[in-house]
Specification:
Blueprint (H helix, E strand, L loop, with lengths): L1 H13 L13 E3 L6 H13 L11 E3 L2 H19 L15 H13 L18
Parallel strand pairs: 1-2
Helix pairs in contact: 2-3
Length: 130
Amino acid sequence: SQSVARCILQAAAVHLTPVTLELGGKCPCLIYGRLDMKAAAKRLVWAKFFNAGQSCVAPDYILCTAETRDMLLPFVKEALESFYGSDPQQSQDMGRIVTDRHWDRLVEMLKKSEGKIVIGGESDKKTRYI
């Protein structure tokens, strides 16, 4: 929030410390038109799963037609398997959630969601895996 950013900048200014604040917001991904679905899925998976989605440029949601969604999903599954293997929970490359508090928050958010899980859905608090 703006008040948090202001406090950080004031604390840094006392020591003449250069500061860059990254304040994330919404990051939609628009997929439309004639395109290479396999390449789009690979780029989408990379951007979303980089650092377990804990990046301000990680796509929050995709805007596309139902037809595009249905064409894209098999390629998303393929890209996930390419990056993290058939069991992503065992992958050394699959990031984990930073803290238990954030893991709890995300799992609760998923429980409240009315969305349909089409790929994955597993979680493990001990390793903070989602």
